[in-house]
Model the fold of this input.
Amino acid sequence: MKTLALISALAPRRVPNLLGGKTLDQWIDTALTQALGPVTRFWLERANSPLSWLPEGVRHTVPSETAGLERTVEKLAEGYDEILWFEADEPLIRPDLINRLLDLHREYRAEYTFADGYPRGLAPEVLHPRIIPTLRRFAEKKQAEKSTETTLRSPWFDLISQDINAFDIETDLSPVDLRAERISFRADSFRQMIFLERWLDKAQGPLLPLLEELRDSPLKRRTLPATLQIQIATGVLQLPVWSPLQLFHPEALRSREFLDDELFQKWVSSALAWAGDLTLMPSFWGEPSLHPRVKELFLEALSHNDLRLVVETSGLGWRDEDLADLAQVARGRLDWIVELDSQNPETYRHLRGEGFDEAQAFTQKALKGFPGHVWPQTVRMKETEEETEGFYRYWKDQAGQAIILKYNSFGGRIPERKPADLSPWKRLPCWHLQRDLAVFRDGTVVPCRDAWRQNLVLGNLHTDTWEAIWGAGGRLLQEHAQENYPEVCRNCDEYYTFFF
Ligand code: SF4
Done:
């Protein structure tokens, strides 16, 4: 068998190329040699980020033209029997899983073999070169239809999914199903580097104990927050029926208090200096469009390269010139979640009040300024159940995507409108404690929206450091892991949801 190993370094490098005293490339090289000996290997690089520390002969530049990656692989794989596909920022790839996948691929003469239920980054994908021309045509068609950019990550599973029955596929199922834990061994953020350093020794040891320990150690999986919510305005323009604002802030329609610009700047920059990169959601219990200097706040946030801004909004109250200015600088780092709830004006009025036409017009303008970064959203509840599929189809066609949000009764504090219970059969420690922080305008920090009465306080930014606040969340997570829940968490079913 002639085996070709391709290591894709197309995704931008956001962290130092070093782990445990070795470069990420050396880790992969060593794993490959341990598994297969002197197999042919090439690193794939982008023209604008060459892997200049590697010798010329082992790297190939992927052109950014349509299906440039698929074309490059098609050419490189000529004369080979199988392709092993790696990502260059997955250094702890396991030699035993390389061999296990290859054995499976060969035994069943598969065309595509992948590992399922494992953490990301421990196993490669295996492809038969004969399917690459077909996948290249799929990629060309997809890119022509959607004008999407060349993919920066493995495109293979997505392409195969376009006609999944046309390919012979084999799967190696993990002995411990870790899909729900969403564990990644990818070195793509400061957060992930902490994780990799922490699990470095274990990841090189026997497989089963590693997987079991990963499953059983939520606290050891927790590193730094990924999403930061900040309340920049206390008021709203609508009170949807699914919102508990009526309960805890009945004045919200009239309330017009705003976060001070300097505090916003201080909190965002200090959080980034500590956590490395973040998704910022400036919509915590308030409508961001109400802030009189909302554009300036967003421009300030976007001036940080390691920040992604996700704005959840009713779509009301936005100024066209602000949208235009933001579109100039966003460069794919500003996403809009528009709470449309329904495409039927009558349902919309019942759920949210007036504003249907303005919210629809906003969404269309946002789609022009931020293509691919607008997420029309509906809440799945009894009132919308019959319309949900139509809503999804309409916006999938218009925007390429839509969100169907799970209804939240806030632990039974507002009426239950959920049409179906999607919660897992066994309760997990809450995702929000593992990944999120949320800051009220007065500096109080909680883990989630459900703590709207400030009843899970982790600290206050006027007196506490990010580290101390995050540490308090860790102690709460430890309680969750021991199935000991604070009162507000006890009946809450948001534990299995998370943002980014
Ligand atoms: S269980 Fe609910 S209330 Fe508790 S931290 Fe998670 S989301 Fe918040």
